[in-house]
């Protein structure tokens, strides 16, 4: 990203290729695309042959989200109003976002393009007269002018690229690699709503220039914590010679025998640019404290679950040098209180139009629903409750499906939640080490959402579950919320995840489940007398007076 703009986008592509397909697609562009791909450069190349002038939302987004745009000017480039409108958008992004622009001249002299002479200029004038109003004509004309360029003359054979041309293409690729900031982290394809969250944190960091600034990013699983941390890192990392982003701390520490040591070695390598052998976590922590003391650092630890993990990976971050920034993402608010962070970024549900826009990008590849799918889309978005993970997973699943298939999916979601979403959310539940806390969570999912905390606490304490501390732990872990008037609440998808855990314990026989809350299941068990000793509680409504009863 460029540092020239205060509202930089988060790049989703390294390079956008602008070219007239009939002139260059099967020659220069195909060769360049292969060379860019081989170099690991993420390139957006539009494979369609377009008519008309209006650019679609996906193409506009590709241009806006590209770090570098390559403009391949050819003799008959100006015959394509599509190319000219892409060019205009590229130059707009160059001015507003600091996007890097690399012009390449294929079988046309740069001076011809800059001065709009010869056939190139004549065709441009004809296009201006044919298609566009005065202001846009002027825009096309200005966009075709100068700057520093790569000049590639006609160096093509009938059978393919010549060795000289191939060498020049490779030189261009190497130049692009140098321009690309390889320290930036890749983020999600559609970062809707990310900008505002990111800038609030960056604004706070800017107020702490001479101290060690400790930031916590807290929220329920898959709410966008890691994406937000990456966006902040991408925005500020150039200010730090010493920097490191350690991802998936929980997963590495839990799944690898020497996971903590592995992460310590990665951190030392990132900061010191040397390989370090570590024989134990304790020795690793000592080495980190000694080597990092007094240095200005940017360190991000993603998905931390215990204070021990924090201590192992950074010791005492207050010993870092002035101006250092230390960022932790976690599902546990208590952890942030224990290390006394300076600022907590709380991940809330997406607001206003953002959920529908994010869902639409995944379901339709545009920022709003297509015709006849608006109401269905709003129903899905309401089900997802502003959770980015659910919007992405379910939106992608529905992409390209018929209206009838959409309706079928919605009916299924009412009874059986999406397995991909549930799998990710269940990590938070599985992370509860206390079985009583798990029981309290499942009880709230099935029976107590919207109920008074004191009322619920009294009932659960009577069952020996120590609900005073248990509910507090669930709140700290972002599994339960305390809402207005001290009522218990939680995200609908967390509720569904908890209920699915109960349902899966006996998918076909409700009488063997620990909790019953669904009317048909309760009715079936009571009328057929199929209940077992597994049933710990059930909730039902009397049809006549609509009163609710809980048996526990």
TrEMBL record:
Gene3D superfamilies tied to this protein: Helical domain of apoptotic protease-activating factors (1.10.8.430), P-loop containing nucleotide triphosphate hydrolases (3.40.50.300), Toll/interleukin-1 receptor homology (TIR) domain (3.40.50.10140)
GO terms, biological process: defense response; signal transduction
SMART domains found in the cross-reference section: TIR
Keywords: DNA-binding, Hydrolase, Leucine-rich repeat, NAD, Plant defense, Repeat
Record-listed E.C. numbers: 3.2.2.6
Coiled coil: none
Keyword Metal-binding appears in the UniProt entry: no
A family per Pfam: TIR
Keyword NAD among record annotations: yes
Record field: catalytic activity: NAD(+) + H2O = ADP-D-ribose + nicotinamide + H(+)
Lineage: Eukaryota, Viridiplantae, Streptophyta, Embryophyta, Tracheophyta
Name of the molecule in the record: ADP-ribosyl cyclase/cyclic ADP-ribose hydrolase
Enzyme class: hydrolase
TIR domain location: 11-180
GO MF annotations, alphabetized: ADP binding; DNA binding; NAD+ nucleosidase activity, cyclic ADP-ribose generating
InterPro entries the UniProt entry points to: Apaf_helical, Disease_R_plants, NB-ARC, P-loop_NTPase, TIR_dom, Toll_tir_struct_dom_sf, WH_DNA-bd_sf, WHD_ROQ1-like
